[in-house]
Amino acid sequence: MTSSADVAVRAGVSRSTVSQILNGHEHLFSEETVDRVRKTAQAMGYRPSFAGRTLSRGKSDIVITLIPDINFGPPIRDFMDLLTDGLAKAGLTNLLQLASSGQTLQNAVLGLRPHAVVALAQLSRQEAALLKEQGIRVIGQAHDVQTAVDTAIGALQAEHLRSLEYDRIVAVRPLSQREQLNAPHREAGLVEYGRAHDMEVLPTIEIGLTSEEALESVRSLPPGRVGLACYNDELALAMLGAAQRLGLSVPEVVGVIGVDNSVVARSFTPRITSVNIDLQLNVRELISAVVAGQELHVPEESIGEYLRGLNVVLGETTASPTEVPTANAVPTHLHVEDVMRVSATDD
Predict the structure, then answer these.
(1) What is residue 232's predicted lDDT score, i.e. its pLDDT?
(2) What is the pTM of this model?
């Protein structure tokens, strides 16, 4: 196995020079020396010791992402893939840790001396204080941004249904406690938009993913045309299946729209109309904060960029097959100021 001493001999420098350059102290040496050492190490396949780098810097190249105890569906996996790849390009390794796991801080976080902790899950005050005492930076998810995005999703669903003359709408939320971080804001966005535009907003439906619950919910709907704004594509699929089993015409009588633009939504027959979320925007800001060593802060005037990353992908559950275009991304028409107002009152 190649050692730092081997690299030093070939590069014509001391072992200490190799160690310092490859452990983040290249500013102490000339550009020519740094370039020679790095190229030699790469050619010889040398990698610095993880333990040594951690001891030298006081922290490792590991980023620990604490994820909430929610259903780990395709959107979360895609988000984590983008985050992991982006951090890797910055020389950092991303490790995932369920926030609900026992001894999270003591074993996983403090023991590894991470470069940073990305807290997608809410930390207690005691946990946050413990990390701060140990000199570990916590990059928290911007709550105001997430609230605004979830509120906009609900409002966008309502706007889309209204544009297709579904004047009666209902929010469909999951019963699972794992999804209650986002669900209330999406419901609030839908309800607020509907009321502001003289739509009839029916009482919210809460179901699991069993066919019987979905059947009972659809069976309880009043007669007439109604639009179902579902929390995600999985609930949309459940409600769509129930409507079909009950012989209700989709989209003529029942319109269904989900969230996530998942593979299921795109491949199912009929194709499910869904709200697409641009994950790249969120990941880019998060990686920038981690690498720069700064707290994640998105100015209010910049939240509009996140909202413009939302769009409706038209499927056959709100429009007939002949109405679904080949390029079926429907632009967002929501005003940022309206969404911010809704999210503020919802808090």
Answers:
(1) 93
(2) 0.70
Which phi and psi angles does 263 have, rounded to 5°? -60, -40
Residue 74: which of 187, 234, 213 has the closest Cα?
234
**Two tokens at 130?**
């413990």
Q: Report whether the peptide linkage leading into residue 114 is cis, meaning its omega lies within 30 degrees of zero.
A: no
Could you tell me which residues come within 8 angstroms of residue 53 by beta carbon, excluding any fewer than 6 positions away?
23, 24, 60, 61
Length of the chain in terms of residues written? 347
Q: Residue 169's closest CA among 196, 206, 195, 199?
A: 199
204 within 8 A of 183, measured Cβ to Cβ: no
Instruction: Tell me whether domains 4-56 and 144-278+308-346 share a fold.
Output: no
> What pLDDT was estimated at residue 72?
61
Does the 144-278+308-346 domain belong in CATH 3.40.50.10190? Answer: no
Fold of 4-56: 434 Repressor (Amino-terminal Domain) (1.10.260)
Quick one: fold of 62-140? Rossmann fold (3.40.50)
- Number of Cβ within a 10 Å radius of residue 56: 16
Q: Where are the domains of the chain?
A: 4-56, 62-140, 144-278+308-346
Give mean pLDDT in consecutive 10-residue pieces for the chain, a chain of 347 residues. 84 87 80 91 74 52 78 73 87 78 58 79 73 78 78 95 95 84 92 96 90 92 96 95 95 96 89 89 80 68 74 90 55 47 51
DSSP 34-96: HHHHHHHHHHHT----HHHHHHHHSS-SEEEEEE-SS---HHHHHHHHHHHHHHHHTT-EEEE
Determine the Cα–Cα distance for residues 61 and 71; give it in Å rounded to an integer: 28
Return the closest-CA partner of residue 290 out of 127, 114, 122.
Answer: 114
What is the structure's pLDDT at 263? 87
CA dist 289 and 120 (Å) reads: 14
